[in-house]
Design goal:
The protein is mostly helical and 83 residues long. The protein is built from two helices and two strands. It has a domain of 56 residues.
Length: 83
């Protein structure tokens, strides 16, 4: 929903607060898309491409079938696929 980095608690945030926020971020965005587009959301793009085993397991628990991350490396424009 907010594109917050989900890999860990922020300063002064308890683990429970972090976990509740993470669950809200993952399920809330899914609900908004479902309501507005009437489409079932099956896949997740991790904010900033970052994830942890905990985030992966929660996404599975919430019903996501797969998720996308990024591979951080230099890319030449000529090697970029567009379309």
């Amino acid at each position: 929903m907010s594109h917050r980095n989900l890999t860990g608690p922020e300063k002064n945030e308890t683990f429970k607060e972090y976990f509740d926020i993470m669950e809200k971020e993952l399920s809330g965005s899914r609900g908004i898309i479902k309501r507005n587009l009437n489409r079932e959301v099956k896949y997740l793009a991790y904010p900033y491409g970052n994830t942890t085993p905990l985030v992966v397991e929660l996404a599975k628990k919430l019903g996501y079938r797969g998720a996308l991350s990024i591979k951080r490396e230099a890319t030449r424009f000529s090697s970029t696929i567009i379309g």
